[in-house]
Amino acid sequence: MIRHLQRFAVLLILLGCGVAARAENVPYTSENPVAGDPLTEALVREFEAASLGGKCTFSIAVIDADSGVPYVQINADKVMRPASLVKIITAAVALDVLGPDRKFTTTVEGPNPDRKGVVAGNLVIRGGGDPSLGPRFQQDGSDVMGVLNDWAGKLAKRGVKRVTGNVIGNDMRYADDPTALGWEKMELAQWYSAEVSALCYNENTIDVIWKAAGKTGELASYTLQPTVKYVNLQSSVRSGLESQVKPRVRYFRFGESNNVRARGTLPPETMKHDFIAVHDPARYTAELFSSALKEKKIVVEKGAISQRVVGDEAPTTDTVTLITHQSPPLSEMLSTLLGVSHNLYAEVFLRETALASQEAPTFQGGFQAVSRWLRDKRLYHTGLVLVDGSGLSSIDRASAVQFVDVLRHEYNSPNRQLFLGSLATPGRLSLKNRFEGDEYAPLRDHLSAKTGFISGVHSLAGRFRNHKDSEYLFAIIVNDYDADRTVAARDFVDHAVLMMQSSNILP
Question: Which of 43, 90, 131, 406 has its CA 20 to 30 A from that of 324?
């Protein structure tokens, strides 16, 4: 209660202050206290009161959305680890280079079936970079196998009864470069670390549905969807204490395999729907399609394999396109990238941007394409380092002012409504469980933002409208807080936005 009274006292002081002039960047460290306008000083006091650890640092940049005039600039040009704010850049470049109407095409190719329904050779699923292939955008989003069952049904209607070769998942549109430097090796089985592939299915994960027993310490049961034997899961997940509220389950995958261990606890007598990232998504897709074909009584004589390296593909003759599948347009997938903050969509969009910019379809090629675009738009800031398109890498570096400048570019672009409308809002998407208290009521319907979180990093950037109906673009980045202060770091970010939105310092 005392903490909340102190916060509201700060807000009352700020509401009584006059309009700030154009702000200069204020460097801040704990050894170098700032002396600036009342809002800047209040934000610094709020940061210090949060007690996030001696190594913790933060940056804030706020500009007027229409004029670009800066109003809060605390360490604004300091290069920081930004986490998923990187997706703001990835999305902006993809929208401009690829266009909002861009669709991704996946094909199934092979020899024409003969009169007896025999496909004399291989069926090749050729990946075209569609990250949405699977249930997310289907009418029945719970049917994991729906798309592949539909494909198998189409071949059955054409009279196909036998495939003499393999079902091949072709991933050769991209280089064999599935994970980036700075991705935590112990997290490669987590859904957010899914491997990058030009042939994706179910966002390169397998669903796992947990059911916890009623007695503390009992092993939890689970089922995998799809039921294809692709992942070997060994589980020590058990029911936790009766007081446990949230599930705590982690997955560990060993090297380039699909041997996965699950560890953790679940609240007793609860269910949890989760996802495990698989190795070699192209072969995974081929395995699933082979299973769908068998369900339609189509015999596959050999097996399911992947082609991942250019040059692996043997020349074929008399091959035709048997099935063509198109993704939703990029505009419809944008909220999955920005609002849900799905890393796979960011990485695929980065590869496609690289290809469209005549760069190699790799992480490095993506950075080269993004850097050139930023320089062409005069948006590039010194110190920018992006080794991926999602911000998952601990090596990524960018400043707060880098993000507000890109946000302002989108604010002034024809894509303004699409871009800003794809961000999360309080109570929705990645902000579903944030800004919940009554004190945050002023931000409801007045905030849209991109979240960011990796170990030691909390960040938030987007747009807010203040009580004077003026719009501002902002970025807040917090780095290197103590491990036990994660929630406090997030709370500081959230309250900093409230302080700025409610202050009379901003006109």
Answer: 90
Torsion angle of alpha carbons 362, 365, 370, 371, nearest 10°? 140
| 296 contacts 67 by C-beta, under 8 angstroms | no
The rounded distance, in Å, linking the Cα atoms of 160 and 140 is 26
174 near 261, Cβ under 8 Å?
no
Mean pLDDT of 1-13: 45
| pLDDT above 90: percentage of residues in the chain | 83
Q: List, for residues 433-492, the tens digit of each pLDDT value.
A: 999 989 999 999 999 999 999 999 999 999 999 988 999 999 999 999 999 999 999 999
- Identify the three-state secondary structure at position 43: helix
Q: Between the CA of residue 31 and those of 27, 48, 57, 410, what are the distances in Å?
A: 11, 11, 12, 37
The closest of 8, 61, 166 to 462, measured between CA atoms, is 61
Return d(Cα 318, Cα 309) in angstroms, integer. Answer: 23
Instruction: Give the β-pairing of 162-163 and 118-119.
Output: parallel
Domain architecture of the chain: domains with CATH:
105-326 (3.50.80.20)
Task: Name residues whose C-beta falls within 8 Å of residue 461's C-beta, 6 or more positions apart in sequence.
Answer: 85, 88, 400, 403, 404, 407, 449, 450, 452, 473, 474, 475, 476
SS3 letters for 156-210?
A: HHCCCCEECCCEEEECCCCCCCCCCCCCCHHHCCEHHHCCCCCECCHHHEEEEEE
For residue range 375-387, list pLDDT tens digits in order: 999 999 999 999 9
Apex 399 CA angle, 174 and 64, nearest 5: 115
- CA atoms of 155 and 141, how far apart (whole Å): 23
129 closest CA partner among 204, 206, 190, 231: 204
**Tokens describing residue 428:** 């929705």
